[in-house]
User: What shape does this take?
Amino acid sequence: EPEVTQTPSHQVTQMGQEVILRCVPISNHLYFYWYRQILGQKVEFLVSFYNNEISEKSEIFDDQFSVERPDGSNFTLKIRSTKLEDSAMYFCASKRNTGNTIYFGEGSWLTVV
Amino acid sequence: EDKVVQSPLSLVVHEGDTVTLNCSYEVTNFRSLLWYKQEKKAPTFLFMLTSSGIEKKSGRLSSILDKKELFSILNITATQTGDSAVYLCASPEGGSTLGRLYFGRGTQLTVWP
Assistant: This one.
């Protein structure tokens, strides 16, 4: 069964460093998302991406964050100058052209020290 | 203010018990409600509900939606230890064209042998 894959599964970085989280969405999906879940809190929407551009972003997704689809398969989330409060599980997700079902990857656990 | 509220926050039962998990929502232009199971990492899709009163069923799991009262329930019969997980309820904001999901805090279900 096709699935969303994410790398790395866990990354530890120093405050102020840049990180790039990578995702390979399900191949015939057209909508891509990043969500995050701070330990013990709700899953929160960050950004949605369609047709090679950001469609919607939350108030969390400030100038520190950016997304890119550098080729036909990868979808990346870049966090510039990480802060301690960026420590969270980051989930990539994707969706087909029709329907509302969003499929999630296994997540990338980011720890900022 | 939370758009999706789940109860209870945690539940401990013994194998064989039946459990009912609750989700109430308040999103504009409601389109659908989704249930996910989150074991260690990725939320995995269980059900999507769009119509009132129509039960969705998958093995021992079933779910139903009440659009008049704005809630959904997830039932698990004859629980097994493998059902232990966090169960998440989510709904896309109607104005969100690409399915930005609002999640509840989840119900942590623990099934003891």
